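Postdoc handover notes: sequence design on the structure in folder B. Input tokens:
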């Protein structure tokens, strides 16, 4: 195995799960590991404490006559559940053929580590970089980056740069270079329905008192009509329509309806009339149920009316939809659909706006040239359905656009069991970083 892969495996072995306090020390060890790596590469690292997990910064030598590129990534990873669906130990990187299996392999350790290795290679060969580089690696992306926007505000001056680059999105297929020029935003909330003051015998009391599980189901049904149109009043008011040029461009990609069916294993598609699967996924807002619960979940039957039931919702947003306003509209809708016989409790969660940039700007063109050099093919221009809320904060606070140069393949299983990253993309990522820094030079 190459020394670069050996080192990557060492990085992957650290279980930096940000959401679970059990892994708190591991998240910190991961930040320490990065600090050591940056030092050995010849960059100047900084460890920054936050109320949560640390932010790691590393800087190259700064020269006044060249642009500064901020490279963002996240060293935290998603939990591994359901752990028994993994074919290998989730934190023991395992090479099978061309694929490296491990939690975090694609999202996001492999993708930003490739950038680090690109910088290391260039420094080894030339003793210098074509541009100034600042790495910004956070440990809280998977929990909504609660401390990063304040961090950007506080360090606005020392993070001043000309452009930001991030590899944390997808490629439309193996070997197909992909520039993502937009991301959906996100807004999350939980709600709970409280009914009777205790669990009840469903025969003795059923029919006369409200069943919170039924009420939760009814409220969930009220979110969409039978044509899949979201029924929250004013939800669509500020939605930016898709542009003709992008609809045409996406129509020229491999058949998105077919690939969506294949990638998901669903028996059929569903969605608003008049939109393709790619348009739905990249350019239209959603209301999703991410979790629902209440009542007996064990073996056999148990005749009970649960005293409470809950659901977890998230909304994916498109440009111009305001996350806070959407949470407000959604809360009003949920309250309106809760009958007087029950009490609803709503807890608002993390949120962040959508992002869109011009892929034809001079930086966008530099990114396209770098992608073409790394993959020997013309880049495709897409938007993504996933969210990286901090990207819009980088725009608002630091004042620069972000080039989203994703290396995640459709079958990489991020957030799921058996997450994997290909050796091919690991190596392409290193080449991509080297080409990108050259293309961004003045
Ligand atoms: N890397 C993903 C986002 C992503 C995945 C963008 C695939 C495009 C394609 C990121 O780590 C992520 O999962 N973000 C969360 C949002 C966060 C606020 C929890 C998401 O999109 O659910
Ligand atoms: Mn990610």
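Designed sequence:
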């Amino acid at each position: 195995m190459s020394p670069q892969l050996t080192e990557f495996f060492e990085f992957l072995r650290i279980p930096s799960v940000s959401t679970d306090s059990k892994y708190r020390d591991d998240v910190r060890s991961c930040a320490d590991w990065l600090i050591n790596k940056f030092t050995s590469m010849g960059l100047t690292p900084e460890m920054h404490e936050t109320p949560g997990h640390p932010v790691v910064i590393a800087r190259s030598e700064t020269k006044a006559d060249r642009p500064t590129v901020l490279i963002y990534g996240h060293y935290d990873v998603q939990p591994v559940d359901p752990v028994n669906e993994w074919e290998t130990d989730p934190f023991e990187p395992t090479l099978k053929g061309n694929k490296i299996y491990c939690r975090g392999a694609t999202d996001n350790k492999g993708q930003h580590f490739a950038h680090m290795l690109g910088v290391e290679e260039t420094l080894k060969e030339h003793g210098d970089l074509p541009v100034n580089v600042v790495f910004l690696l956070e440990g809280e992306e998977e929990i909504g980056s609660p401390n990063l926007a304040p961090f950007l505000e506080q360090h606005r001056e020392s993070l001043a740069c000309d452009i930001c680059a991030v590899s944390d999105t997808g490629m439309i297929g193996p070997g197909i270079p992909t520039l993502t020029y937009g991301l959906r935003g996100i807004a999350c909330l939980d709600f709970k329905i409280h009914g009777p003051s205790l669990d009840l015998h469903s025969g003795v009391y059923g029919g006369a008192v409200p069943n919170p599980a039924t009420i939760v189901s009814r409220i969930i049904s009220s979110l969409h009509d039978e044509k899949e149109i979201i029924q929250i009043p004013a939800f669509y008011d500020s939605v930016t329509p898709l542009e003709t040029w992008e609809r045409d461009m996406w129509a020229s990609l491999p058949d998105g309806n077919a690939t969506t069916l294949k990638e998901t294993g669903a028996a059929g598609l569903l969605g608003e009339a008049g939109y393709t699967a790619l348009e739905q996924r990249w350019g239209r807002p959603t209301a999703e149920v991410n979790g629902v619960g209440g009542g007996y979940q064990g073996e056999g039957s148990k005749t009970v009316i649960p005293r409470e039931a809950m659901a977890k919702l998230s909304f994916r947003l498109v440009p111009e939809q305001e996350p806070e306003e959407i949470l407000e509209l959604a809360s009003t809708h949920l309250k309106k659909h809760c009958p007087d016989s029950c009490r609803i409790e709503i807890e608002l969660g993390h949120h962040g706006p959508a992002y869109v940039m011009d892929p034809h700007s001079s930086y966008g063109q530099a990114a396209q040239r770098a992608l073409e050099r790394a993959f020997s093919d013309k880049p495709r221009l897409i938007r993504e359905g996933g969210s990286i809320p901090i990207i819009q904060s980088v725009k608002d606070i630091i004042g620069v656009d972000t080039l989203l140069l994703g290396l995640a393949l459709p079958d990489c299983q991020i957030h799921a069991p058996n997450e994997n990253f290909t050796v091919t993309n690991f190596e392409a990522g290193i080449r991509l970083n080297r080409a990108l820094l050259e293309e961004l030079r003045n």
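Context for whoever picks this up: Residues 105-126 form the longest helix (22 residues). Don't rerun without checking with the PI first.
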